[in-house]
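Just curious: can you write a single protein's sequence together with how it folds?
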Amino acid sequence: MIPNMDLEAIPWRTTRWPGVRIWFYASDRVSNRTVALIAMAPGCGYPRHKHHGTEEVLVLQGGYRDELGEHRAGSHVRYDDRSEHTPVALAGPTATTCVLFAVAHEGIELLAGTPPA
């Protein structure tokens, strides 16, 4: 967990996916570049999506798993242009909310309506 990070002070927006919240720090409609914080409750996830351009993710708290494996607090993950993945927050008795700092350089395309359980 990142010290001094007050998750309750962030103006989160709920999403249509249970347990997933997002806060857009910056967004450019021309380039589709998005900088955001994403919070996923344990066991909850973001739908499968494809990247347009690269995406850089820094795990600030908790962790998640996807097709590349498990990524825990402090991990930096880079997804290449046109890559696809389905992130799901790690679950278990000691799991905490997964918080990600993500930069999608040219946006994403959602490929499914609901994430896996």
Notes: The chain has one domain: 21-83+92-110. The radius of gyration is 13 Å. The CA atoms of residues 46 and 66 lie 10 Å apart. Residues 21-83+92-110 form a domain with the Jelly Rolls fold (CATH 2.60.120.10).
